[in-house]
Design brief:
This protein is α+β, with helices and mostly antiparallel strands. It has 5 domains: about 10-70; about 80-130; about 145-320, Nucleotidyltransferase, domain 5 (2-Layer Sandwich), CATH 3.30.420; about 335-405, no CATH class; about 415-495, no CATH class. About 45% of the residues lie in helices and about 15% in strands. The chain has helices at about 10-20, 25-30, 35-45, 50-55, 60-70, 80-95, 100-110, 120-130, 190-205, 235-240, 260-275, 285-300, 310-315, 405-415, 415-425, 430-440, 445-460, 465-475, 485-490; strands at about 145-150, 155-160, 165-170, 170-175, 180-185, 210-215, 220-225, 230, 245-250, 335-340, 345, 350-355, 365-370, 375-380, 380-385, 395. Strands 5-4-1-6-9 form a 5-stranded mixed β-sheet, with helices on both faces. Strand 7 (about 220-225) and strand 8 (about 230) form a beta hairpin. Helix 11 (about 260-275) crosses helix 12 and helix 18 crosses helix 19.
């Protein structure tokens, strides 16, 4: 076959045989080459203006340059140059799924009537597109990066109580340097579950990489940007807690995280496939099975290599990871509130009130809280701190937050639990029990004492005997007891009515009564 490329060894053998005076036909038989191929290469050798002996002395590189890369005057037509200038625009147009090569060619021929045919147009366009598909191999530094992404396919388990099939998204995390992988099924893709899973991944790796990369998922990236993406506040808290840097890929550029894309594909046939015929009845059971196959994946040898992901991770990456923080990550939330005239602010989620120093009444403050603690800040200065109290409509008050006159009243009157129980005991046993209930309602201390005082004042208005009767009735009927309950009982004179009504009722004897003789 003419123009068939031969090896450098064959070429030097042709030179040797020509130096010995053999004909092209004889060379063809000895080297088992096509006659046209031998003729073509001999003609090229003769055009170099060097003898066969001189050519044999050249290095392979010099001989190849002389034979294959002889300068040629390539002449391009105006039609070719015009099409080449249009190709970048056509390539951009093809990113629109509604645009086809035929449409582009028809528009091209309208603008250039004597232009290329459709087949030649598509050939030039395809060649141009191929040059833009070059893939760069990147060597990642150890402990440099962790990539994560959700797998496209879901796993599921069966809710044993309802029989419902619960579909679960699957998060895949990967350290690109070693390929060490972590996989977990989540209840949902919502941010709290995602952040918890990322923390689990770092626990599995036993350390923290310098960077963590996402693909602009909405749970973490607040605003996508090629150069400076904006991350969600809670994601930033997570990165600060673990002392790592969040980064994001370019929008719609999956190759920016090619490593984790590969791990997702690997998870399909190394984790999903072995689990395909099994039933699971809880998320925990599903993740337990995932971990079994994940360990096999990480400890199995790479195809064509003598080491596993785990071995490479332990050898080159494990010791370079930053240490995990001593405490687990807890999401901190923040809310803005205005200090009320009673120098308290409300945490809306719990409807619980916390005091702040009274001098900040009417100021805008920020509550920063997690599952355990509540802190109050005024322009980055912490002015109060509490253990979180989940009691609805409750009050948590510090005496040092009170103004001077409130403190004086509190101290002078000596109001405390013992004081009110003693006063109620002077009225009666049931009044003392009601007072004990009022004091255990854990409301704001001043409001509690006012309720207690109001209840004792009812004894002065209606008499202690009626107050005791009202307390007895409230306890007997199990109603919600407070000052208003007692006042209503006294105002409506319900305390004067008997608490229980006994009805003596018997059926008189008559002929229609059946006895044991009626039943055989």
């Amino acid at each position: 076959m003419a123009n068939k490329t031969i090896t450098m060894l064959q070429l030097r053998r042709v030179l040797q045989l020509k130096e010995k005076g053999l004909s092209n036909r004889q060379i063809k038989k000895q080297l088992n080459l096509s006659r046209k191929t031998v003729d073509e290469y001999v003609n090229r050798l003769k055009q170099t203006d060097k003898s066969f002996k001189e050519l044999l002395k050249l290095e392979d590189e010099a001989l190849g340059l002389l034979l294959y890369q002889q300068p040629q005057n390539i002449v391009t037509s105006e039609k070719f140059n015009d099409l080449q200038s249009r190709l970048p625009g056509y390539a951009q147009e093809l990113t629109n799924p509604k645009t086809t090569r035929i449409i582009l060619w028809e528009e091209y021929r309208q603008q250039v009537p004597n232009g290329y045919s459709r087949s030649q147009f598509c050939e030039h366009l395809n060649r141009y597109l191929q040059t833009r598909k070059a893939v760069m191999h990147i060597e990642h530094e150890p402990a440099e990066l962790m990539e994560f992404d959700f797998a496209g396919d879901l796993l599921h388990y069966i809710d044993i109580k309802t029989g419902e099939i619960v579909k679960c998204p699957v998060l895949v995390c990967r350290l690109p340097c070693s390929g060490y992988t972590y996989v977990e099924a989540l209840q949902t893709q919502q941010r709290p579950f995602l952040i918890a899973a990322l923390s689990n991944a770092l626990q599995y790796f036993g350390g923290v990489p310098h960077m963590v990369r996402t693909d602009n998922m909405a749970q973490i990236v607040k605003k996508a940007n090629r150069y400076e993406p904006t991350f969600d506040e809670y994601a930033q808290q997570w990165s600060l807690h673990y002392d790592t840097t969040l980064t994001a890929t370019r929008v719609a550029k999956p190759r920016d995280k090619a490593g984790v894309e590969s791990s997702v594909n690997t998870a399909y046939y190394r984790i999903y496939a072995p689990m395909r015929n099994k039933q699971f009845y809880s998320l925990q059971g599903l993740n337990t099975e995932i971990m079994v196959h994940l360990e096999k994946l990480n400890h199995g040898k790479y195809q064509g290599r003598d080491y596993s992901r785990h071995e490479k991770f332990i050898t080159v990456e494990k010791l370079l990871l930053r240490p995990l923080p001593e405490e687990e990550f807890v999401v901190k939330y923040s809310r803005v509130a205005k200090v009320a005239p009673d120098y308290h602010i409300m945490l809306g989620e719990d409807r619980h009130f916390y005091s702040v120093p009274h001098q900040y009444i009417s100021k805008q403050v920020t509550l920063v809280y997690d599952t355990r603690n509540v802190e109050v800040y005024l322009q980055h200065q912490r002015i109060a701190s509490y253990k979180r109290d989940y009691s609805k409509n409750g009050y948590t008050t510090l005496q040092e937050h009170m103004p001077a006159n409130h403190k004086a009243i509190y101290e002078q009157r000596g109001w405390d639990e013992e004081y009110f129980l003693k006063k109620a005991g002077e009225v009666g046993k049931n009044t003392r029990e009601v007072m004990s209930i009022l004091l255990k309602q854990r409301t704001f201390i001043q409001q509690t004492y006012r309720s207690c005082i109001g209840s004792l004042e009812l004894g002065k208005k209606y008499g202690n005997n009626r107050l005791e009767a009202a307390c007895t009735r409230a306890l007997a009927f199990g109603t919600k007891i407070n000052y208003t309950t007692l006042r209503n009982i006294l105002e409506k004179n319900l305390d004067k009515e008997p608490n229980q009504v006994s009805i003596d009722f018997c059926i008189p004897l008559h002929d229609n009564l059946r006895g044991d003789t009626c039943y055989g």
